[in-house]
């Protein structure tokens, strides 16, 4: 399921392979079945992220049905969105043990079960468990494999592929909002959730399309780097040397463990061959023993990979740039979610409801967001453009818009800022690409799981925090200012760490020259 350590070294411009003969690329890398993976991921974003963007329809129904406070009822949607992302690191464990396809199919069943059980809810607290937790975990089990598989199947056009697949969020926001609204009108919210649960079973189909690449295919991945990509790789190479060097330290124990596992399986096979002359019942027992042994070996190897990524010698947290990336993620996502939550109230405060009803500001963000993901993906894949620089420029544009939005008091001004927010937030499609550049393909599932976990924490607490600030100040302005300043702190961390990493080798070389 994952690339070898040598593959990671090559990704970051390892010169040890400079003279090796290029291997013929697999036709499914950047083509063939890879586009089916993009389609699968696109549908996953429609069914999961799109339906979560449309939860405002159900939130109004829950308020009317259960007569609870807005704050308490809002936690149902917040839990579902937050848990979908927060469970990322643990879903990485499932992927390490079972693979992306199996994880996604199980997640699809769990998500559908959460929707169906929620249709029988008798109170809001029941929805916390069925929809917030059950459907949220199921969504996370499908979402992470959908992102990881696109990263595995693409090298040259990773940014474009991720951009195309994640546009499903924007399309889903429109489709699912219209669908849930019509279903609630025609059949009531309970039947609407039951029907949506049946529709969510299509996530299992999306998971079935996630055909895993064989280890041989991953090892034969022929990466063609442009000059600009090589320069970016060198700029970040020192931050990744720790992971690569520490990975070598853990290689010997892994080899010993694999040898022991093979010895156990070999002994079982030897007993099976030697016992062919025995009864059918004993042969059946040996087959069960062999299956259990193989399953045990798979689980142990998957857990070892997951554990080493977080706590072992090859821990991802030894990469300082990646740690800065996590800090950035803790503040970034809430700056995108807060406008979706509070823009309707801002429009009402400035008496702009008539214009907003014709063309809602949130719809402007969603529409331009689709184009932003595709366009930024295309730009990032250009030979002369660095994905890292595009990512940073989009972040700077978004944080500027967040800080500027409270100053706009006309519909036209708000519409322009919202369009810029939608376009610049298209950098979400670049997050898996940047993560893979930092840690390599092998660690992508675990690393991106940590990143979306940080995003989940931001999505879970960001909107309630903004509401709390409003209760104190009776203004939304301070919510945007505080969110924007925290976002800027995260961007500064992204800027500082690569500079520190580049300065450290210079200091070491100077000290060695003096000695």
UniProtKB/TrEMBL annotation:
Instruction: List GO molecular-function terms, semicolon-separated.
Output: monocarboxylic acid transmembrane transporter activity
The annotated topology with respect to the bilayer is:
Multi-pass membrane protein
Bilayer-spanning residue ranges: 33-55, 75-95, 102-120, 126-148, 321-341, 361-379, 386-405, 411-434, 446-466, 478-496
Give residue ranges for domain Major facilitator superfamily (MFS) profile: 37-502
Keyword field contains Transmembrane:
yes
Q: Give the organism's phylogenetic lineage.
A: Eukaryota, Metazoa, Chordata, Craniata, Vertebrata
Keywords, sorted A to Z: Membrane, Transmembrane, Transmembrane helix
* A cellular-component GO term for this protein: membrane
Subcellular localization is given as: Membrane
Q: What Gene3D superfamilies is this protein classified in?
A: MFS general substrate transporter like domains (1.20.1250.20)
What is the predominant subcellular site recorded for this chain? membrane
The entry's protein name is MOT14 protein
The organism's place on the tree of life at top rank: Eukaryota
What InterPro entries does its record include?
A: MFS (IPR011701), MFS_dom (IPR020846), MFS_trans_sf (IPR036259), Proton-linked_MCT (IPR050327)
The keyword GTP-binding belongs to this UniProt entry's keyword annotation? no
Q: Which CDD domains match?
A: MFS_MCT14
